[in-house]
């Protein structure tokens, strides 16, 4: 499988008045087309910092990330064109309807009005928001807004999707909509990074994992590989071990054709 996302020794330090924090410490991994990579870790592990660097929103101290061969530090516009980013903190435009907001973003990505309209129709059907397509976003529930956010991130049909806590604040049904959609995107051949604290869903939906702790990737691989490495059955148990400091840092090895 050829790699769509390549992250190579990505490092970022923050200088605080009393100390330095290494939020990402030489992080390396890859994600191929049709693969969901779970970048998981406890609070403060460095997930958001890593994703911001991959998206070209934050400069690395060293190392780099590439999307389809475009480096996010050198060619952030090429990267943004190919990536859809969904986070729990992204807001909707309260004064616009969902349709107006999606049309606006389609225009930003240079889509023709006809293509954009067809895409909105498809996405509203897929994500089940036809009913509130013409309602102002201000009046929508958290779950309804998140469906619109997901559609916004996908309006330009990017080949890479990055999800940062996409189900925060959503109920079981709302979360299922998002996770089912991640399954669908994988089937369409997208390369996907998922950061979430919902470990059971992550365990079900992700093909491979990178487990972060204090800025370092301490474990990596498929669930079967993680089980073999740790002797634990599920991610919750592995997480508890990580938080208790059981594992030292280890870089995820380069891809092999036979691996996942
Ligand atoms: N702008 C910043 N200035 C200083 N320190 C920062 C900054 N951004 C992140 N950090 C620190 O870097 C570390 C990693 O933070 P990051 O937000 O990447 O973690 P996370 O894994 O996304 O956590 P969470 O699951 O809580 O969202 C934390 O110690 C955090 O306090």
UniProtKB/TrEMBL annotation:
SMART domains, alphabetized: AAA (SM00382)
Limits of the ABC transporter domain: 5-239
InterPro entries attached to this UniProt entry: AAA+_ATPase (IPR003593), ABC_transporter-like_ATP-bd (IPR003439), ABC_transporter_ATP-binding (IPR050763), P-loop_NTPase (IPR027417)
Molecular function GO labels: ATP binding; ATP hydrolysis activity
Entry-linked Pfam families: ABC_tran
Keyword hit for ATP-binding: yes
Keyword DNA damage: no
UniProt KW keywords: ATP-binding, Nodulation, Nucleotide-binding, Transport
Recorded superkingdom: Bacteria
Family: Belongs to the ABC transporter superfamily.
Name used for this protein in its record: Putative ABC transporter ATP-binding protein YbhF
Native organism: Mariniblastus fucicola
